[in-house]
Amino acid sequence: MLVLVTGATGKVGQALIARMSRAAAAQPVKIRALCHNRVLPETETLSVMKGSIADRAVCRAALRDVTHVVHLATCKETPEDVMDVTVKGLFWLLEEFRESPSAKRFVLIGGDAAVGHFFYRHPAPVTEETPHMAYPGCYALSKVLEEVMLQQYGIQYGIDWCCLRAPWIMEKDDFRHTLSFGDDVFGGPDWKTMVTPEEAEACRARGAVPLLEEADGTPVKRNFVHVDDLVEAILLALTATAARQRLYNICMDEPVDYQIVADHLARTRGLPVKPIRSPYVSTWMDNSRAKAELGWRPVYDTKKLIDAAWDYRRSPSDPRRVWYPG
């Protein structure tokens, strides 16, 4: 098996490559990392090539002799790049994949932005049959286009694809920083902009935790997944017979309830709470299909996600870097 990993230097790519490398002794596998701005050190298991997936020649070279693709490369809210990377890049990868004599399965890591996550109210849990609903901005649109393009290649050319639709992916101390009132906040909402400057300063000083609420005061529920759980799902999806031309929601069994977060941190860490009304609404992603067909089970629940983030201690050699907002 030769696996091409795009977006290999991101949190998921690095975690996946490390996990596959550890298992290589028991199940021989070679990994080719396609890197763009950053690179990884090569090993006996890992080879590295550099280039942009927006270049068809790069995609052709990257896919030579490859049996499986794990496509992680994406853009966030960067309109100047999103069509070249997310749309054209995926198109060239799929064009080369469908013509390759060695290609077996193409695994795309999608996102819950394709169904609007907490921007739109859904009348029932979000399943794989929920219609696409991109929220404003280019990122959510790109996630819809990715899923549709992949599915259409299955219809047009019969390729073996699998899409794992993940919500916000956490690792290390990420979740702690999603709740910061400071400039070190990871992703959105940007809490300090939702209160007065004086309130933001007081919250920073006290270590307060935001309690995100809907417009009527109901605590928001938002979906997350830990990178370790996502990596396990990827490994299953690479070879599972049931995964052919299937879309799976890969998320925690229950969404994170901001009231439960606030209560847990108040009880276990003594942190005060700051309720914040918002236009956001609760969603609940249903992961039943992945559990039934792949035999996948998430390890992380809300309390484990919180405690892992608060207990994590970074070494001097592992400074916190955010390469993109969220």
Description:
- With 326 residues, the chain is α/β, with parallel strands linked by helices.
- The protein has two domains: 2-171 and 223-254 and 284-300, Rossmann fold (3-Layer(aba) Sandwich), CATH 3.40.50; 174-220 and 256-277, no CATH class.
- It has helices at 11-23, 56-62, 79-99, 138-157, 174-177, 197-206, 227-239, 258-269, 288-294, 302-311, and strands spanning 2-6, 30-35, 46-50, 68-71, 105-111, 161-166, 168-170, 209-213, 221-222, 224-226, 246-249, 256-257, 273-277.
- It has a seven-stranded parallel beta sheet with strand order 3-2-1-4-5-6-11, sandwiched between helices. Strands 7-10 form a two-stranded parallel sheet.
- Helix 1 crosses helix 7 (227-239) and helix 3 (79-99) runs parallel beside helix 4.
- The longest helix has 21 residues, at 79-99.
Kindly list the characteristics that best describe this protein.
single chain, 326 residues, alpha/beta, 2 domains, seven-stranded parallel beta sheet, two-stranded parallel sheet, 10 helices, 36% helix, globular
Query: What gross morphology would you assign?
Result: globular
Query: Could you say how many structural domains there are in total?
Result: 2
Kindly provide the radius of gyration, computed on alpha-carbon positions and rounded to a whole number of angstroms: 20 Å
Tell me the name of the CATH homologous superfamily of the largest domain. NAD(P)-binding Rossmann-like Domain
**What structural category arises from helix and sheet content?**
alpha/beta
Helical segment tally? 10
CATH architecture descriptor text of the largest domain: 3-Layer(aba) Sandwich
What CATH first level of the largest domain would be assigned?
Alpha Beta
Mean pLDDT: 95
The biggest sheet, with number of strands, parallel, antiparallel or mixed sense and barrel status, is: 7 strands, parallel
Span of the ends, CA to CA: 32 Å
Q: Give helix and strand order, one letter per element, not per position.
A: EHEEHEHEHEEHHEEEHEEHEHH
